[in-house]
Structure prediction request, 120 residues.
Amino acid sequence: MVGDGNHVVGAGDGAAKATATVTEAQLAALHDAFTSVRAEIPPEDPATDRAAELLDELEEAVTTPQTDLTTMAYVRRWFATNLPALAGSVAALLVHPVVAQLAEAAGGGLAAGYHDLVNG
Prediction:
């Protein structure tokens, strides 16, 4: 998950691999991308609070040592259904180069699942 200083933190080999793969500057750029999408949430929309919560969940899902594909898929579908004007921005977060790097660093089935998620 992202810590206070935009560090990848966690235990086990996945965290060490992800930390070695993604720089602090790259994590900061990803965080900035999430901040930009949060700013797009219409304040008057009844779904505003839930949208902000889901973006927080998505940011955590993409930055954990074991990328959470289930949350990524759920959040993408939720925005497509409930705030379709932001669905493209959320999809852009999912294909962000740093997210791809983190998914690759997780390795194995997670990397393949990530590619299925963003390509399907």
Remarks:
- Residues 1-20 have pLDDT under 50 and may be disordered.
- DSSP finds seven helices and no strands in the chain.
- The first helix runs from residue 13 to 21.
